[in-house]
Write a structure and sequence with these properties.
Helix content is 36%, strand content 23%. It has a 4-stranded mixed beta sheet. A two-stranded antiparallel sheet has the order 1-2. The protein is α+β, with helices and mostly antiparallel strands. It starts with a strand and ends with a helix.
Length: 173
């Protein structure tokens, strides 16, 4: 049935004692990141801070994910990072964004297989606006990896994605 009632022969339907909110929580735990992720906005680590700021505003996002020449996630940069550097006396036209980004392994990430509930907990715990959705890169150059895992970015989870999911679940779409 709906998870609230059960049925037995010659007894009929009876309340099983499960509150409605636990059913909602169970549905949230079943939704995977891969089902609601959005397209990531990426820039290369060699791109200038100025060009990155322009990209951020043109794409209307609050976070840019930074990749190297091989497409491997190496960092993240936010509006606050840009504001800090723009207020200084540095030439943002010449400075690469790779200098001001938050670098791996200090990034909080999620994977396509992780539940949306776990991703939401990470967003709250680390007080970030979005998470990069990553998968292990097929590293052809084993010397460049230096024994570390390398991650390709395949999406992003934002507070907007989570809010949209909640609205859809409530409206039963």
């Amino acid at each position: 049935m709906s998870g609230i009632l059960a049925a037995r022969p010659r007894v009929g339907y009876y309340y099983i004692g499960k509150p409605v909110h636990s059913l909602f929580a169970a549905r949230l735990r079943k939704v995977k990141v891969d089902e609601i992720k959005s397209v990531p906005i990426v820039v290369k680590d060699s791109m200038s801070v100025y060009e990155s700021i322009i990209t951020m505003f043109l794409e209307d996002v609050g976070t840019l994910f930074v990749v190297n020449d091989r497409g491997i996630l190496v960092g993240v940069v936010s509006r606050k990072d840009f504001l800090k550097v723009a207020l200084g006396k540095t030439d943002i036209h010449q400075m690469p964004v790779g200098i001001i980004m938050t670098r791996m392994p200090n990034l909080v990430t999620t994977t396509p297989e992780e539940s949306i509930y776990e991703a939401a907990k990470k967003i709250i715990e680390h007080q970030v606006d979005s998470l990069p959705v990553v998968r292990l890169a097929d590293s052809v150059d084993s010397l460049s990896a230096k024994g570390k895992d390398e991650w390709e970015i395949c999406g992003r989870i934002t507070k907007t994605n989570l809010t949209k999911l909640l609205v859809e679940l409530v409206e039963e779409k």
